[in-house]
Design a protein that fits this description.
270 residues; 17% strand
């Protein structure tokens, strides 16, 4: 039994519709999948309706916070979608901030890289992320790969980088708990300005120990960290699109065995 607990759809910066994610997850032998779009629950709630005994769908999201000048993402997982209407209203404010950021990034792209980005796409997307913007740069004919765009323009510390939110991790974790969810530190390997322990003290429940960007020894380090602090671990591909060099393929990085059983137990599944 295996699960991919970090997957994006068209409701944020993925390219696949929810139904496509479900079918692909079944084809690749997953027992469970979590839809975790950025600051939006719409895709996860849509996917939950397609949950079956064959494939359990977990309602999730990837919440944007900021700490020490960099984005810190917190994965939220919920037993089901009931009672999340108020949380979705809160997230709507987050998405407005993302939209404002997108226009600021547009200005910086023009100033520093002579990229005149048509922002029509921003009015259609539920949640505009840097990944969304990177794909639009490419689709609008500018000669860069997504990897180059993040390395030169949109990555932390680059000229067009702007954090998506001013919400701190402690507030984000508390918000997830308020609505009955479990809060997991996403991709700790990507932290540059802080250590995972600094986020753990804010009340985190788990750590994403299995992740595409991990290098040798990372998973073992995060497992030890989780054990030391009484946390569970998760794992996922962070799937956005087939062939995406920045992330994994669906079902390529998974949680399985006793790790998955512990996650289900903590979430309240039998």
């Amino acid at each position: 039994m295996k699960a991919d607990l970090h997957v994006h759809t068209i409701h944020s910066d993925g390219v696949c519709y929810v139904g496509e994610i479900i079918e692909l997850a079944k084809k690749r032998g997953l027992a469970a999948v979590a839809v975790t779009d950025h600051d939006v629950l719409q895709g996860a709630l849509e996917a939950e309706k397609l949950s079956t005994q064959e494939l359990k769908v977990i309602v999730g999201l990837e919440l944007s916070t900021e700490y020490k000048g960099e984005s810190v993402h917190i994965l939220g997982y919920f037993k089901d979608g009931s009672g999340l209407e108020a949380f979705e209203r809160f997230l709507a404010a987050q998405r407005k901030n993302r939209l404002k950021r997108a226009y600021k990034i547009r200005d910086r792209l023009a100033e520093h890289f002579n990229i005149d980005l048509d922002m029509g796409f921003a009015q259609e997307a539920a949640s505009v992320t840097r990944g969304t913007i990177a794909r639009e740069i490419i689709s609008q004919g500018h000669p860069y790969t997504q990897e180059e765009i993040f390395e030169k323009m949109l990555g932390n510390g680059r000229a067009a980088y702007i954090p998506s939110t001013k919400m701190d991790p402690e507030t984000g974790i508390r918000k997830i708990h308020e609505f009955g969810g479990l809060a997991v530190l996403a991709h700790p390997v990507l932290l540059k300005n802080s250590e995972p322990e600094e986020i753990i003290v804010f009340g985190i429940d788990g750590i994403e120990a299995i992740y595409p960007a991990n290098t040798s020894g990372c998973e073992e380090r995060f497992r030890r960290l989780a054990s030391r602090h009484g946390l569970f671990i998760t794992g996922g591909s962070d799937f956005h699109a087939p062939g995406d060099s920045q992330h994994g393929e669906l079902a390529e990085f998974v949680l399985s065995g006793r790790d998955l059983e512990i996650f289900f137990e903590r979430l309240g599944f039998d």
